């Protein structure tokens, strides 16, 4: 019985440690994107890549979120193919490339959290409208790189 308890405690400790690392990784990606201010998100429309600037990034409920409008082409492209790539440059010689899958979160709380983080969006969006699209990203592989050092790969 004692061995079973020790095994359960060890597994719980591993799970807690893995969750903490995931949160640290997510925070590092969030902070890099916030520092950049503007990042570029790539989607696909048919066989044509599409890229446009974004500026929203927020952590809510243990997930990294971006936001757009449902009426925009980018929303339609993500609905057809949720695989996205994000790229940003910090102006000081480092950049980040992110491969991810975007997942819609329809919960009002996720929308409101984003709007609270970006009050200027409240002129165009509301947590209760039919246009606000909040997306969290999963299956994330982020690479922070520069011309002078080894790239750092972050996954969550």
UniProtKB/TrEMBL annotation:
InterPro entries: Pyridox_Oxase_N (IPR011576), Split_barrel_FMN-bd (IPR012349). Residues 1-20 form the signal peptide. The keyword RNA-binding does not apply. It holds the Pfam family PNPOx_N. Keywords: Signal. The keyword Transport does not apply. Residues 27-114 form the Pyridoxamine 5'-phosphate oxidase N-terminal domain. This is Pyridoxamine 5'-phosphate oxidase N-terminal domain-containing protein. It comes from Candidatus Ordinivivax streblomastigis.
């Amino acid at each position: 019985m004692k061995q079973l308890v020790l095994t359960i405690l060890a597994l719980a400790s591993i799970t807690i440690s893995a969750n903490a690392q995931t949160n640290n990784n997510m925070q590092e990606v969030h902070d890099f994107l916030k520092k950049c201010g503007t990042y570029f998100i790539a989607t696909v429309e048919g066989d044509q890549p599409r890229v446009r600037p974004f500026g929203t990034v927020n952590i809510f409920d243990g997930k990294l979120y971006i936001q757009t409008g449902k009426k925009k082409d980018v929303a339609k492209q993500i609905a057809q193919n949720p695989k996205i790539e994000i790229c940003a440059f910090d102006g000081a010689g480092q950049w980040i490339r992110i491969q991810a899958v975007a997942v819609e979160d329809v919960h009002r709380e996720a929308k409101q959290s984003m709007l609270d983080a970006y009050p200027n969006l409240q002129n165009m969006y509301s947590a209760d409208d039919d246009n606000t699209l909040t997306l969290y990203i999963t299956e994330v592989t982020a690479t922070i790189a520069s011309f002078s050092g080894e790239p750092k790969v972050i996954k969550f």
